[in-house]
Amino acid sequence: MSERVELGELLYANPLASEKDIDNFRLEGSAAITFPLGKMRMENLMDEEEGQKANFVFWCPDHFPDHIAVSWEFKPIREPGLCIMFFAACGQNGVDLFDSRLKPRSGPYGQYHHGDIDAYHVSYFRRKNPDERRLHTCNLRKSYGFHLVEQGADPIPSIQDVKDPYRIQLIKFGAHIEFSINGLVSFRWHDEGTIGGPPHSAGKIGFRQMAPLIAEYANLTVHRVNRYNVK
After folding, report:
1. Tens digit of pLDDT for each residue in 136-176?
2. CA distance 148 to 37
3. What domain range is 165 assigned to?
């Protein structure tokens, strides 16, 4: 860990190794979630020709505070596709993300950036269309809205060169956000509150995949961040 970041209490740890590990997770959309190699494998059940209807989001049930570091292992199995991590996700006006007063969500992207929730979302392993495959980037967006606020390089290669899982880390420390893969920082961004309203704070995290991607996830952890030096 960099001297810039001091991790504190372990708030959450989930190996994502079997069905019992996802008992309380919430799936929005249609997906097959299996554990053939002791890791959570996710893939769409609907044909990708259905467009946004074929994509899905899988939410961790816990509500996390601000000042956290979220980390997980990721290994792509089949492309094309795209992955997203939602974080600091809440219903608008402070309502819990799973509150029954919110509009139903079933996977189409518009429900998440122009619905009745607020969140940040970082997309990585962006291999859905030719432009994304020609230049691999990680994109940070802020919603409500579809505000692209930061970009950085994505070091994950195409499927044929993937051997081992990649360790991904997302730091949310107040208005500061940092995203890294295997310790290599892709981007850092400070939310000054001039785009999409004030910085978001506490909330839920969730995995999103675009069809027809197949990918594996493991060892999800959330630590409190005691110190984050922006310099």
Report:
1. 999 999 999 999 999 999 999 999 999 999 999 999 999 99
2. 36
3. 5-228
Sheet holding 147-153, edge to edge: 26-28, 56-59, 204-210, 82-91, 117-124, 137-143, 147-153
Whole-number pLDDT of residue 231: 74
**CB of 83 closer than 8 Å to CB of 56:** no
Q: What beta strand segments (E) does 92-203 contain?
A: 117-124, 137-143, 147-153, 166-173, 176-181, 184-190
189-194 contact pairs (CB < 8 A, 24+): 189/140, 189/149, 189/150, 190/230, 191/142, 191/149
Beta bridge partners of residue 218, listed in sequence order: 73
Mean pLDDT of 24-43: 98
Angstrom distances, CA of residue 218 to CA of 35, 102, 150, 160, 169: 10, 30, 26, 21, 13
How many distinct structural domains can be found in the chain?
1
φ, ψ of residue 22 to 5 degrees: the values are -120, 25
pLDDT at 1: 46
Give the mean pLDDT of 104-128.
Answer: 97
Name the pLDDT band for 4 (thresholds 50, 70, 90): confident
